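Hi team,

Filling in the usual template for the complex we talked about on Friday. All components are listed, including any nucleic acid strands or ligand strings, so the model treats them as one assembly.

SUBMITTER: L.P.
PURPOSE: interface mapping
COMPONENTS: two
RESIDUES: 796
SEQUENCES:
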Amino acid sequence: MEELYSKTTASMQHSFIREILKVTKGVPGMISFAGGLPSPASFPKHLLAELFSNVITQEGDDVLQYGASDGDLVFKNIIKDFEEVPYLSDDEIMITVGSTNGIYFFTRTLIDPGDIIICEAPGFPGSLAAMESCGARMVGVEMDEYGMVPESLKVTLEKLISKGESVKFIYAIPEFQNPTGRTMDLNRRRAIIEIAVAFKIPILEDQPYRELRFEGERIITLWELARTEFNDPKLVTIAKSFSKILGPGLRLGFAAGPPEIIKPMVKWAQKSTVSPDCVTQRVAARFIEQGHMHQHVQNIIDLYHPRRDAMIKALKTHMPDNVYWTNPEGGMFIWVAFDKSVDTDKLFARAVENKVAFIPGSKFYPKGIMKKNELRLNFSYSNEEQILEGIRRLAGLL
Amino acid sequence: MEELYSKTTASMQHSFIREILKVTKGVPGMISFAGGLPSPASFPKHLLAELFSNVITQEGDDVLQYGASDGDLVFKNIIKDFEEVPYLSDDEIMITVGSTNGIYFFTRTLIDPGDIIICEAPGFPGSLAAMESCGARMVGVEMDEYGMVPESLKVTLEKLISKGESVKFIYAIPEFQNPTGRTMDLNRRRAIIEIAVAFKIPILEDQPYRELRFEGERIITLWELARTEFNDPKLVTIAKSFSKILGPGLRLGFAAGPPEIIKPMVKWAQKSTVSPDCVTQRVAARFIEQGHMHQHVQNIIDLYHPRRDAMIKALKTHMPDNVYWTNPEGGMFIWVAFDKSVDTDKLFARAVENKVAFIPGSKFYPKGIMKKNELRLNFSYSNEEQILEGIRRLAGLL
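RESULT (copied from the run log):
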């Protein structure tokens, strides 16, 4: 039947990360820093159990019925308050089936096959795959300590545009980036926005980890910065996720941006999901409305912060010289770079034999960039003891 | 920003049905036969409230975490048992965010822009819009009392193929079709499959209403028929929905078909939703596993059957001569055809003034077919009293 496949289906890539996760799952004694999983200890089970029961009992006639494709209005309004953007109109925000869903709809709205999206290199493969499934070609821009390098972004854009390429948007995770854990500082944010304004290229800002800040000052989002300092309310669309602060199984996220973008995104939602789960939306709404979110996020930070510290400490203790790692102020990931002689694709097989897992860095680069000496470590899923032991095992293989 | 839209986004149609529903919603005294809504009285609120609470308390670590893109394995296995297809392999079935989601992924798997899908005329606009969003051109085949007319299907296919068109699949709702309420009998099912086999064109069988049979014998699905009598297990993919038997707000459906189709559909899911809501999937699994579904479906039938009877009786009592209507053995809809002089698009405005609503028949035809003298009535949402009064009002306008 493969002869019937559409062109996009026929060319669809396999997910290497899923393969890696399969190899490491359920192996006794395996310490996995590979997945991007929140800790189950972070799930507010008791509150959610109670809220699901209450919402269905009290609001079941409403939430078990068909709901709006742009999301539950109750939830939208509560998010606006929680995010301190009460002035947003209803057609500037939509609820999505997780943030990947918002990223997919944004891409579907703008991308014709062959169009170009600028992304961070390394970047998050889940988003890159969603974009490529719409026919986008991903062009990576190198990063430094503060994220995408503005000079490189500018040169890349100039080169592409002079070749007549259709560059549709810039995709970035400014906070605790996946995979590097890096955060754009305020100057970098300004520099990136200036370039986007100059080239008239919109930005898709992905913010899955923003709430998980362990230390340092919260920085204004690209989205807020463009609206306020740059007086350009249409430049940035933001995609946010409840996966890291409530539970990924609930599949909830939202997107906020100009009505010209959100409205067609809602049309794509109508045609592919009809709406997100209405019961779950209302439960999340009541969770926030009843004031549980701030304390709950603090609980997650109290869980992850010592795990990051444990991982950094273990890296310092066990890693040989000439190994570099990022020191993220939050989120879930640390990025490690070795001497160029180390090939982490090869290291992976030996690591799994020794019951420790990571994702090789090569999996995070868009086509055309081949870097082999890096890897991503997740510190949210394993406890401190596992982290110390896992890093010790890993360092022993070098 | 519209200049940045992708071609598919720029050409996307507005949903007339959504506009109609907006006009009729919340108007005091309005009796609406327009929507396709289940009755809130059919929602098993007490059971669901209890199950959500139990599942999160007992299985929260699992179901609040990221889940598989093909769906919760527990739920998949319970569905296989419930549908009496325990022999299906795991890559022949996937859970979807409602059945429209399955229809979208199926279409995305097979359709390149410009490819053709054969559909019933009249057909369900929600599915047709999902298909058109992937760039499909819809070609309608006329229906009689038993659904798509085989001779017309054959002639249509011959004509298209002789013109070199790429016909990718046939889409049908064989049971209590939306909008007509008609059901394909066994002979018709055989005839349609024979043609599909002869032309080597797969079928997408949409079965949202199958469980809601008030009378008459259950008929074997196209999917089962192709697998058994025709020994062609790859011909038919089936899309099913829990919207009419649990609650549309839960956004749950599933698709079953050959691995060659389900596997790429799962890849599309990975890239656009990651997975359906894992909590909701497990709740639906426990609902079925604990044996509630059969009684619950009987309760819905006991609710809708008298409503259908009331509507048929009211049509007989109030409608003038020369009006035809279908007499569905189940489902949610009755199709009414008037004398050619009646224009139901015009009738709609007068009906809404008189506080009764329906969907004009013209909204159910793919491009190129223009029929104005029909309309769709929903009988699941209004109670008997409202049904009698609403049909009286409608007939009074003729």
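MY TAKE: Chain B has two domains: 2-44+295-396, 66-289. The radius of gyration of chain B is 21 Å.

Thanks, L.
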